[in-house]
Structure formats: structure tokens, C-alpha cells
Amino acid sequence: MEKTEQMICFLCRCHGEVDSGHQDLGQTEKRIDLEFVRARVMAAYSFVKQVKIFDSLCMDQDFSEMARHIRDCCASRVLICACASKIDEIRLGLKKQDMDAMVEFADVREGCAWIHQGRHGFATEKACDLVKMAIVSLAEQGVSSFPDPGIQPSVLVVGAGPAGLAAAAALARAGIRVHLVEKAEQPGGMLRLLHTVGPGNDTPKAYLASYVEAIEKNPLVTAYLSAKLMSIHGDPGCFTARMIVGQKKIDVKAGAVILAMGARAVLPRDVYGYRELSGVISAMELERNLNKGMAIQGPVAFIQCVGVRDENRPYCSAICCPVTLKNAIQIKTDHPETRVIVFHRDMMCPGVELERYYRRARGLGIVFIRFDAATPPVVLGKESIEKIQCLDTSMGREISYPVKTLVLSTGLAPHPNTNGVFDQITLAGETQKDGAFQDFFSVKPLMNPVQTDVPGVLICGSARWPVLADGAATQGEAAAMKALIFLGDKGLDSQGLSQFRESKFAIARVNADRCSGCGNCVAACPFEACRLEPGNGRYHCRVNPFRCTGCGTCVAVCPNNSIQLPEQTSRAIGAMLLTAFGEQNTGVEENSPDRVKKQKRAARGIEQ
Ligand code: SF4
Ligand code: SF4
Ligand code: SF4
């Protein structure tokens, strides 16, 4: 912190959760005495120009009031002492007030007032320590520099199934240029191959009509059909995709990428007489036969969980149970006399609508037989399927049904990463050597379900995880909104980017003069953000700011202290430690020259 800089500190009462303020409560009820904290801080640090106590810091009027105080005292560094849960909200609120001061937080609610209820004196002392530690840390922090991201105001959407179409339509509605790439001749994805889309029983064409119309009518969407995607290169904010359409090579630029390429149906292999006995077909073949209006010979049986929930694919594919219900109901409704039996391990029908669907199937007389993975149904027949024997685990007895048509309900698997198209925009761990995705993409399912580990790369629909058409379209719209936020944050700085990634810290910075090019950070960085580059006759490390999540791993392995997180430098941590543990023994006042020297020594101790 420069000598001319000022700091301001805001303490939050949280409407009495932290400090009951003027209310006449007993000492044990008071929790933290913020007036006492304020007096301590003001006495200790001359560069802290003001310490303001607010009843709340997370409302709109609080942001404008804080901004007014920050401007009044020309503070370049702001300490917020409040609750842990509102950090991002407060940071964003200040940003909206055009505040670009450096901001640090101290948690005085959850980590202090709440956990030390009934210990008023102790909680107040601890709050003093927390606030003082945050002050010295903020004073030692450097400013993150961040290159101009040069964001392209357009989005590449890979795949024109329900997720991709919904994403493209939403983005175009918001005025963003969209490049929609689809390998098939028509939009619709796998949905296009289905007979009907349940539970509403729309035709795929009717189901997709509004999306298709939206993208056809909007000149901001360029759809590349029958396109072969060759590569996607670049960094978040500026990707370049190369594709071949017909004989033509086409390059397009986009600021964000939405992966909506769906998944592929697993093919039954050497199971249940598939390809050996006539009458045994896959679920996709049943859709095709229904589409052609072919008669389905009864009795009809379905076997669930084929090719999934086993050692190779140990997951539930989520969509095959609802799809079986759809087709079983269709067959039973068209031909009530046909016997329909579903052999299942569990019928997965989450939600009220699918539960109703299941009950409707039962009401129509469709028979559900539960089996165990260890004792799967046995299919018997000579040239054609004749019957199925199975241990019914619900009844605890062997049963046998004559069957003319057996439908194998296979799950979904990730698409192969053909030619390593996605290598540049995913992390290496996500693909296998043979080019197939090891798993569906890695996402942050709880708080940020359509965000991949790479900023600006979103994922939705069955590319993310098997999902029905409605869910895929909803995710497509969610991904579009996330892409809009990413593109819209024109003043994307290090704090903005780290906020987008839900990470507190910003971007690692390299001191090229000190870097020996040892490569430790390159090997250690879990996000492939470090690489060695030549310069001045030697190699030194360069950090890709879009990939860096501020995890700090590189800082720990660098032998020369040449890579640091500006917000958490060794000096800042040293100063915090000295504030927390050094003071009682030394009796040195915070503002004294001795203390400043000690802080410097502590910081050097960490650096050496
Ligand atoms: S959705 Fe049903 S059939 Fe598909 S894997 Fe899950 S339990 Fe098996
Ligand atoms: S802080 Fe983490 S993500 Fe950033 S360069 Fe260092 S190791 Fe990589
Ligand atoms: S670990 Fe440190 S010295 Fe080695 S390449 Fe990385 S930044 Fe340079």
C-alpha cells in the first residue's frame, strides 16, 4: 500500500446478529461490541481513515451509502466486516456503484458472533483480531493486473438438439450473434429420431417448432448444418472454431462456447439375444419402427438398464425409464389386447409428472417385474425370441412370459471426442487416450450446473448428463444466460473473472526477472494455466489468466518466490500472522516503526 493511499472499514451489525447496538440487552446477549472494535482499529492504524458501523451492508441503499463514504475519504482499499455468505453480493453491489477499490472481507458473523454466543468479551476480542488481520492483509496486497480480454460478442453453440436450439434462440433474442454448428442435415438432435416426445406425446417436429422458428427468423443466428467441427482453439473471450461444411473450410470467432452436442445411445452388445434372435431390438430401433407405422408384435417386453449401471458405465442414464414408459403406453393404448411387460431394476420416474406417467402405465395393465443385477432375465428362443424367464425379486419367485418383441432399453454415453476437437477447451483429464470422453463433462453441479472448469465454456443437455428434452431446453437457456453474463462483463478484471468462477482470489502473477524457468509450476498447476515461454534468451513462466483459478498451488512449489497471488502474497500472510500471534509477546503498537520492521521480517521469513 502506497503512503498516499487510504483505507476505510465498514462494520456490520447485521440487524443485531453481530451487535445488538443500542438495545438494552445483557452483556451475554450483546455478542460483539462493534464500538469497541472501531475504537481499537482507529487507535491502531493511521491509514484507516474511517470505521463506519452499519445496521446492514447487503441492501441496495447500503451500497450507495458505502460508495458515498468511500468517495468522501478517497479510499482505495475497503474492508468489509460482515457475514461470510454475502461476500459476493456486497462485492457486486459496490461494483455497480462504479467502485473499483480493492476489497477485503472479515467474517465477524458466522465465524465469530454466532459461534461465540454467550461469550461477549471473547467474541469482541476475537473480532478485533480478525479485523486487524484483514486490515494488515489488505494493506499488503498488490493490485492484480489483467490484460484486456478482447471479448468477441458472439457465441458458438455446438449441437442443434433441444439444448442447443434453446440456447441459440435465447441468445439471439438477447441480441447476441450465434454460430450454431450441427453435424446432421436438420436441427433436432436425437429427438428428431423419436416417434413422439413424452409425456405430452408431441411429435418431435411440433415440440421443436418454436425453437426452430426462432432461430430461422432471427438473422443473428447462422446455422451450419451438415457441418464437421474440426477444432476449437483460443482462450475464453476469443475462441476460433474451424469446421468443414460441404467442401468449404469455415472459421468462426466467438467469445463463449456452449457445448450442446448431446450424447449417443449405447448399442446393445452380445446381450439378451440381440442380433441373434429376431424380435430383439434396441429402443432406438423401436422408435424407428413406430415412426414407420410398423406393427409391433405382441406380447412385447422391455428390459431396462442395458449397457449401463454396470462396471463399464456405472451410472443411471435417467432417460431410458421415461422413454420406455412412453413407448409401452403407446403400444398398450393403440392395442389394448397386447400384453406389455417391463423388466426393470428400478423405475426412475422423478417428479410429479413422471410419477403420474408411471401410474398411468400401471392403470393400463402394463406389468412391471423387478429383477436383480446378479440375476438378469434370460431370453430363450431358437431363431426368434420365444420367452423370457426371470427371478421376480418383489415376489421372490421365478416367472416366465412368452414374448414376440423384446426392446432393449439402452442408456446414453458421452460422444467420442473425435480428432481431439475439444482438447483445447477442456482440461486434459476429461478425455481418454482413445479419444472418448472419460466421463460426461466435469461441472459444478450445485452452484453452477452449466459451467465447465474453463471460463466461457458452458455445457448443457445430454452432453452434460443424460436428460429429457424439457430439461435439456431449460439447461440450454441457463447456459445462454451464463454466456451473456460472461460476454456482458465488458470490464472483466481479475476480480470480475474470479467472481464468475466463484473463487475469492484472482490470478497468479509472475515476476519474470526472478523466474528461473524450472517448470515446477507448470507440472503442479491443476488447471494447466502455467506454461514456459521463451524471452530474453531463456524460458520463464507465463500464466494464462483465463485458466488460472487462483488456487495458489504454483506459489507453494516455486523455489524462487517468483509467482504470487497479489491478494495473498507472503508479505500479506506474514503480516496477518504477526498480527494474530506476535502482538501479545512484543507489546509493540501497530503504528510503531518497530512493528513495521517486525512485519517485514515476518514476511521475509515466509519468503525465504
Ligand atoms: S433410467 Fe431406468 S433404465 Fe435407464 S439406467 Fe436408469 S434405471 Fe436403468
Ligand atoms: S494459482 Fe493455481 S490455477 Fe493459477 S497458475 Fe497457480 S496453480 Fe495454476
Ligand atoms: S516454479 Fe517459479 S521459478 Fe519455476 S518456472 Fe514457475 S514461476 Fe518460474
From TrEMBL:
Molecular functions (GO terms): CoB--CoM heterodisulfide reductase activity; iron-sulfur cluster binding; metal ion binding
Family annotation (Pfam families): Fer4_21, Pyr_redox_2
Ranges of biased composition (kind: Basic residues): 597-608
Region named Disordered: 586-608
EC number: 1.8.98.1
Ranges where the 4Fe-4S ferredoxin-type domain occurs: 506-535, 539-568
InterPro entries: 4Fe4S_Fe-S-bd, 4Fe4S_Fe_S_CS, FAD/NAD-bd_sf, FAD/NAD-binding_dom, Metab_Enz_Cyan_OpOx_G3PDH
Keywords: Iron, Iron-sulfur, Metal-binding, Oxidoreductase
Record flagged with keyword Amino-acid biosynthesis: no
Name of the featured protein: HdrA3
Organism encoding this protein: Desulforapulum autotrophicum (strain ATCC 43914 / DSM 3382 / VKM B-1955 / HRM2)
